[in-house]
Structures are given as C-alpha cells and as structure tokens.
Design brief:
- By secondary structure, the protein is of the alpha+beta class.
- The protein is built from two helices and ten strands, in the order E-E-H-E-E-E-E-E-E-E-E-H.
- It has helices at about 30-40, 130-145, and strands spanning about 5-15, 15-20, 45-55, 60, 70-75, 75-80, 85-90, 90-95, 110-115, 115-125.
- Strands 7-4-3-1-2-8-10-9 form an eight-stranded mixed β-sheet, covered by helices on one side. Strands 5-6 form a two-stranded antiparallel sheet.
- The longest helix is centred in the last third of the chain and has 16 residues, at about 130-145.
- The chain starts with a strand and ends with a helix.
Length: about 150
C-alpha cells in the first residue's frame, strides 16, 4: 500500500493515542480538535489533510509541510499551535451532521481503514459531550484490553 493523502480529516493526539476525525466539510472536525486542544490538552498533528502512512504493521498520520501547526478556527481564522509531526492512529471518529444518524447502542466498535482495524466511534461533533465521548471510548478500550 502506498502513502495516501486523506482530505477532510484532522488528526490529534491525547494521552499518547492518535484520534483521526473524519467527515465532510463543515461537520466540525477542526472545531472538535480545537476544543480537545484548548480544554483537554490534546496536541495537533494535522488539520484538513492527513498524510496516511502504514509502517511496521501500524497506521500513522502525518502533517504536510505547508500545514504544520495550523488549525482552522471557523469564524476566527487560521490559528497557530504547537504540534507533533506524526502519530500512530488508534481511533477513527466518524463525524456526522445529524444526530439521527447515530445509533443509540452501536454494533460497530471497530472499522477496517486502509487495511488496518481501528477502534471506531460515530458522533455529532457539536454536542457538548463530544470530547467526553472520545475520551470514554479510549478509556473503555483500555479497560477491555487489560
């Protein structure tokens, strides 16, 4: 598999775990990343375009040279943040624009992505609880693997 550019995605890292935020334009990827960075200490990896790179049986995401440390904050502009250039992707978050598209008790806990199995979560980015749901998903997965 060759390296790929994943457009309409944002990658952050928190607690050593890489979180790939995916969804169509305007669904809240950058906004959710902004809240995770400002309120929960997440680190920015890449916003808008994530370079996907398989390596040693793991999936990594990197920032492109021209977007290092840049995050779009809608209504404000482009903000500059400290960033890390790459991280392993541990969780794929599928952001939807309508809450009705989210199952109350989802069956799908993992998803195949670029031939890798990733922990999976589908949420609405603009819910106040969105960051907490991500952190809960990561915590619950850690509990299941102990």
């Amino acid at each position: 598999m060759s390296d790929e550019n994943l457009k309409h995605a944002t990658l952050i890292q928190i607690g050593g775990k890489g979180i790939l935020l995916c969804g169509k334009s305007g669904v809240g990827k950058s906004d959710l990343a902004f809240r995770m960075i400002e309120d929960y200490g997440a680190m920015l990896v890449a916003d808008d375009v994530v370079l996907i790179k398989p390596e040693s049986g793991e999936l990594y995401g990197e920032v492109s040279e021209n977007l290092k440390g840049l995050l779009e904050v809608r209504g404000v502009g482009i903000a500059k943040y400290d960033y890390i250039p790459r991280c392993k992707i541990d969780l794929m978050v599928d952001l939807v624009d309508e809450k009705e598209k989210i199952e109350r008790l989802p069956d799908l806990l993992k998803v195949r992505f670029f031939d890798f199995e990733l922990l999976y979560l589908k949420i609405h980015a603009f819910e106040v609880s969105a960051p907490h749901k991500i952190l809960l998903k990561l915590r619950d997965n850690l509990l299941q693997t102990e």
